[in-house]
Specification:
transcription regulation; DNA-binding; 224 residues; phosphoprotein; five-stranded parallel beta sheet; transcription; Arc Repressor Mutant, subunit A
């Protein structure tokens, strides 16, 4: 899953981004409101973590513009005060949640995961494809009670396919979920990640099928 972090405090931004990458999130980070507004018109994210007070354009205006464009991406606001006025501003502008600085790292991660579950609507605590299981709360994959040890981008590709299991996912959609603004997107790299994942799933009843010219689909192997 891919997040946008909008925070002008460089040290805090680096800390949050590092924390989220440890949780297998792909993270883009920008330092001001104008950059955020521009990026949000061209990129798709699963969650936006947005500071309320930013240079060049405050977080409230970034959020207002996002909602006027009809973009319903979940947004967590970061606020330094947590006053009633700040909270009302956040929710009235269209925020889904807020976190008061300073905050505990575990709280931020928990709130992000809760937003993702809420956005998914009918997502249960566990998804399955054949004997492959995905635990939504921890974002871990298991086969026969054994946790799959996946690299970050392998995890992102398999997670994207699992969340859309039984549906075709284009290579461009996988590239968008895996690569951040500072990366050089590579279609060949997606082929490599798919190849590695097929090795991980070699003894699993879930399989990744290539639909030539369309993309990939995760589904249980057909029983002959």
């Amino acid at each position: 899953m891919k997040l946008l972090l909008v925070e002008d405090n460089t040290e805090l931004a680096h800390w949050i981004a590092h924390l989220l990458r440890l949780e297998n999130f792909a993270v883009d980070s920008v330092p001001d409101g104008e950059c955020a507004d521009m990026v949000l018109t061209t990129q798709r994210y699963d969650v936006v973590v947005l500071d309320l007070r930013l240079p060049r354009m405050d977080g409230k205006e970034v959020l207002a513009r996002l909602r006027r464009r009809g973009d319903r991406v979940p947004v967590i606001m970061l606020t330094a005060h947590g006053s009633t006025d700040d909270k009302v501003d956040c929710f009235s502008t269209g925020a889904d949640d807020y976190v008061v600085k300073p905050f505990d790292a575990r709280e931020l991660v928990a709130r992000i995961k809760a937003l993702i579950r809420r956005q998914s609507g009918d997502m249960t605590s566990c998804l399955a494809c054949g004997d492959l299981r995905y635990i939504c709360d921890t974002r871990e994959f298991f086969h026969n009670d054994a946790r799959l040890a996946l690299r970050r981008r392998e995890h992102t590709v398999l997670e994207t396919l699992m969340l859309r299991k039984g549906k075709t996912v284009s290579k461009s959609a996988l590239m968008e979920s895996v690569f951040c603004l500072d990366d050089e997107p590579s279609a060949d790299a997606i082929d490599i990640y798919i190849h590695r994942l097929r090795k991980h799933l070699a003894n699993c009843s879930a399989q990744i099928t290539t639909l030539r010219g369309l993309g990939y689909i995760l589904r249980p192997q057909a029983i002959e």
